[in-house]
Amino acid sequence: RFSKYITIRRKSELAMQLNLSERQI
Fold this sequence. Notes:
Elements: H1 2-24
InterPro entries: Homeodomain-like_sf
Protein name: Pm-CAD
């Protein structure tokens, strides 16, 4: 179903946000 796809997308988005925050610091 879509649940798997959504979870993967959410994980990727979170990872990107973490990378951005880490770079800013």
